[in-house]
Predict the structure of B9 domain-containing protein 2.
Amino acid sequence: MATLPRITANELLQVSVVGQIVGGTELGDGASGSAHCNWRLVAQPGWKHLFGEVAGASQSDMPDTSQSDMPESTMYVWCHPLDACFECENVRAQEAWPRLELEVRWRDIYDRSDLEGYGVVSVPPLPGVHQLVCRLWRPRGSMRERFVAYVMGGRPHLKNNGLVFGVAEEMENGSKQLARAVGERRLLTEPAGTVHISLAVCVQRKLKPDTD
């Protein structure tokens, strides 16, 4: 079993992420339209962003699904580059690696822009080239909201994008788990497609500069 990179109190852990958001599949329920992906790289407390972009949006792609026997499998090609570097000097934070949060938007043939789905995937903690698959989800909404979205567009969406990753809720036994909502009012969700990501991860351990 591979060992995760770890640091001591006098070391820094530097992580470089280079790759691309390749594209999406199973989007738009097989209908004609275009899609693009908004993204952001999120670092936890104890990590510092050194350089590179940490948020952006891909191009919009509209493939021809009319000639496909399985339009839901059509790839929406984005090939959007990712290139950023982070540094961790907190020994306790070294297991909470940066993550990539996604929001895919769909534009139909009537030029209406709507939410397609949210997704989150952690940067792999091991060096090398990784092919990642991020499953998207979206709020399900009530029966009325789903009917209105089907006829008029405008799917239910999050007011607080912090819920894309989830918030920590304390359980009765004292443990904590990530939830889409806190308390009795749970957020019902449904699957909303897939995003394909290619990432090359470079990990370096360095001694902290001598401050004497």
